Amino acid sequence: MISPWDRWYTTSCCLCCHVRTGTIILGVWYMLINAVVLLILLSALNDPVQYHYHLTSAELGTDLDVMDDANMCIAAAISLLMILICGMATYGAYKQHAAWIIPFFCYQIFDFALNTLVAISVMVYPNTIQDYLEQLPGTFPYKEDLMSTNNICLVFAVLTFIGCILAFKAYLIACVWNCYRYVSGRGTTEVLVYVTTNDTTVLLPSYEEVVAIPPKEPPPE
């Protein structure tokens, strides 16, 4: 009987490329995004007046928390950690080291769980969307149009959007997991080969065992 993991296992992903290639592209893409975020955060820390991140609640017109230097440093540290994790996944997929892919896979699971909790919170507390819209600054585009929308339609639109994101993230998780299985399978030195007949299953010996068997003596003439 084929297990569900083996049934969904494949060595190809989007655009018909190999799972190793897809994981490398995904890791490089995440590294570029986090590198840009880290560059913006460091630039804002260097010149806070130019980037205007020191905004008070009165300037925002809301009760939103103020972004200070401590929060900026924490965000920069998280971006740096993400660059390291994505770099490990890229290196692991390129050099076929399965253990290096695990941190990035764990991050994907954690991110998927957070987005799932957001979707559940929207379903359980649908009024939180209206509360969030009220906290947005008055200069936010289309704020009045969004607040005048029916709450049920707004919740449906948000859940549809989150559902599409979750489906895409689940597909990326499957690609990285298949890459991990492929790399770990390539690193296995011993491969078990089975020969199955109608009523019996025979385990063939490995190459080392076959070589170690002494040759049979020729029959006497």
Provide a descriptive summary of the structure in words.
- This is Lysosomal-associated transmembrane protein 4B.
- It is found in: Cell membrane; Cell projection; Endomembrane system; Endosome, Multivesicular body lumen.
- The chain is mainly alpha-helical and 221 residues long.
- The protein folds into 2 domains: 16-57 and 68-95; 99-199.
- The chain has helices spanning 4-7, 19-46, 48-51, 57-60, 69-95, 102-124, 128-135, 143-147, 151-186, 207-212, and strands spanning 194-196, 201-203.
- β1 and β2 (201-203) form a beta hairpin.
- The longest helix is centred in the last third of the chain and has 36 residues, at 151-186.
- Mean pLDDT is 76; it is low at 55-66 and 189-199.
Gyration radius (Cα, Å) is 27 Å
Q: State the major sheet.
A: 2 strands, antiparallel
Shape type: elongated
Poorly predicted tracts of residues: 55-66, 189-199
Q: Please tally the helical runs, counting DSSP H or I stretches of 4 or more residues.
A: 10
Structural class: mainly alpha
Mean pLDDT: 76
How many strand elements? 2
Our measurement of the CA-to-CA distance between the termini, rounded to an integer number of angstroms, reads 50 Å
Query: What is the helix fraction of residues, given as a range?
Result: 55-70%
Number of domains: 2
Strand fraction equals under 5%
Order of helices and strands: HHHHHHHHHEEH
- Side by side, the strands of the main sheet go 1-2
